């Protein structure tokens, strides 16, 4: 199975509280690229990004209120092409299971994910950031059609 990703991508942006400054600085440095794509983000991160970038951001719920799960659902529906998630590895989150589930879905549906500035910069320096490309997806038909005894 393959999925075609257009030149204009749907980019999800998420940051834990201690990483909001990092994602804002990174986004401002990459505004020239972000402006060509559709942006969506969890609650407060979305508000901060929209103000700083002066670009529209589709704002979902705050992560602890279900925003991470909303993004995960959009990934499963093929409506997120890239996930930039600056998570805080040094602080436990009340919604840690949601965080793990979101990262898992990113891997299941083979989307590029960055959890830090270095990886986000590598993704955004790729020529594919502004080009159409195809993504190979794992065929889950056997899994979906399995019989549980």
Automatic annotation (TrEMBL):
Cross-referenced Pfam families: MGS
BP-aspect Gene Ontology terms: methylglyoxal biosynthetic process
Domain of life: Bacteria
Domain MGS-like per the UniProt entry, residue ranges: 3-149
GO cellular component, one term: cytosol
SMART domains xref list: MGS
A molecular-function term among this protein's GO annotations: methylglyoxal synthase activity
Binding annotation for substrate: 16, 20, 42-45, 62-63, 95
InterPro entries given in the database record: Methylgl_synth, Methylglyoxal_synth_AS, MGS-like_dom, MGS-like_dom_sf
Catalysed transformations (reactions): dihydroxyacetone phosphate = methylglyoxal + phosphate
The enzyme's E.C. designation: 4.2.3.3
Keywords associated with the record: Lyase
Active site: 68
Family membership noted in the UniProt record: Belongs to the methylglyoxal synthase family.
Described function: Catalyzes the formation of methylglyoxal from dihydroxyacetone phosphate.
UniProt name for this protein: Methylglyoxal synthase
Organism in which the protein naturally occurs: Leadbetterella byssophila (strain DSM 17132 / JCM 16389 / KACC 11308 / NBRC 106382 / 4M15)
Gene name in the database record: mgsA
């Amino acid at each position: 199975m393959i999925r075609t990703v257009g030149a204009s991508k749907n980019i999800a942006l998420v940051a834990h509280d201690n990483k909001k400054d990092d994602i804002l600085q990174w986004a401002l440095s990459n505004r020239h690229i972000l402006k060509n794509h559709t942006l969506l983000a969890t609650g407060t991160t979305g508000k901060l990004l929209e103000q700083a970038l002066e670009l529209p951001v589709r704002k979902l719920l705050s992560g602890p209120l279900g925003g991470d799960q909303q993004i995960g659902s959009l990934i499963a529906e093929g409506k997120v092409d890239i996930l930039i998630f600056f998570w805080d590895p040094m602080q436990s989150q009340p919604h840690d299971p949601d965080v793990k589930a979101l990262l898992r879905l990113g891997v299941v549906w083979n989307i590029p994910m960055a959890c830090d500035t270095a990886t986000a910069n590598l993704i955004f320096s790729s020529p594919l950031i502004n080009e159409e490309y195809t993504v190979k997806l794992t065929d889950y038909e056997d899994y979906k059609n399995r019989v549980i005894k």
